[in-house]
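TICKET: design request
STATUS: open
ATTACHED STRUCTURE:
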């Protein structure tokens, strides 16, 4: 579940960033799509890492749906640690962009 929650954190954070800059966020869970829309907002340095969160969404949310989306099946502890780190970094970067303490 940590991978799912990390993906959700990044998704909602990117959507908030879009709203802040006057864009209407699309109805999507795809981090890749949100990153494309927020590219001019200085989020591109994390793009390759954040794209991996898309791989966590379905198997973490629906463990019996598509177990083969990740190379090793369901997310493991190291996947969760990576996902949580990415969520923290994204949140910090967006706070800096928005100048929020």
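STATUS: resolved
RESOLUTION: sequence designed for all positions
ATTACHED SEQUENCE:
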């Amino acid at each position: 579940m940590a991978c799912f929650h990390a993906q959700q954190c990044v998704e909602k954070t990117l959507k908030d960033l879009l709203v802040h800059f006057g864009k209407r966020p699309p109805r999507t869970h795809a981090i890749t799509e949100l990153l494309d829309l927020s590219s001019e907002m200085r989020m591109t340095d994390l793009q390759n890492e954040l794209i991996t969160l898309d791989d966590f969404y379905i198997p973490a949310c629906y463990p019996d749906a598509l177990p083969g989306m990740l190379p090793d099946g369901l997310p493991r502890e190291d996947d969760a640690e990576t996902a949580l780190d990415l969520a923290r970094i994204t949140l910090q970067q967006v706070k800096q962009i928005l100048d929020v303490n």
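CLOSING REMARK: The first helix runs from residue 2 to 20. The chain has one domain: 2-98.
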